[in-house]
Amino acid sequence: MARPLRHPTRDQIELPLVLDCLSDPIRLAIVYQLAQHQRDGTELCCGDFNELSGKSNLAYHFTKLRDAGLMQTRIVGTNRLMKLRREDLDTRFPGLIDAVIKSAARDAGRLSLVAECEIADTD
Amino acid sequence: MARPLRHPTRDQIELPLVLDCLSDPIRLAIVYQLAQHQRDGTELCCGDFNELSGKSNLAYHFTKLRDAGLMQTRIVGTNRLMKLRREDLDTRFPGLIDAVIKSAARDAGRLSLVAECEIADTD
């Protein structure tokens, strides 16, 4: 059986690390896409982000997001299922993720990777 | 006469650059301190941040903050007077700076530089 992945506890989530994660356009696009799908409780798998970057680069960003406490990952068979730690983030930093997601949505046109996510979403 | 410093226009302020600026604990502390003083319209000068870091390191962070559009700097004699571009930031990214400042205040104890700011404030 796969070993569960290490995640920081809610209290271990640190503001500078969260902001650093969100400052990268690819990680911002991943978080944005996770937030869009969170509404209906869907977890996403690695393949859902293939439009954003290559596999190994995405794996690097997934690890950064998990280590910073932005994302929960669970291993099911050969898949990794991912979701945003929305409740933990909203408790630690009220309003922050919401403001970042809304700002990203407003700037979707210039944050080209986010725009690609949105196009991919509507397929 | 000193040449006015270059600042990005409101529309040129970019989300990834703003988040990158805020992800650095010293820059976050500078922004936090500027936000505290903004309420009464006070501009701050370089010396007001001496508790945070050395002069040349602070100069580097001031430039990063100005270039990213977080801070307005004007030269008066031998002084540089600085204020947060709160209205521009709130227009571009509604709620973002407010959420970051509140999150920093909640974590003041563990963001040691922010805590130093607060101590300096009460002097």
Automatic annotation (TrEMBL), chains A, B:
SMART domains: HTH_ARSR. Gene3D superfamilies: Winged helix-like DNA-binding domain superfamily/Winged helix DNA-binding domain. Residues 17-98 form the HTH arsR-type domain. InterPro entries: ArsR-like_HTH, HTH_ArsR_DNA-bd_dom, WH-like_DNA-bd_sf, WH_DNA-bd_sf. Signal peptide: none annotated. This is Helix-turn-helix transcriptional regulator. The lineage of its organism: Bacteria, Pseudomonadati, Pseudomonadota, Alphaproteobacteria, Hyphomicrobiales.
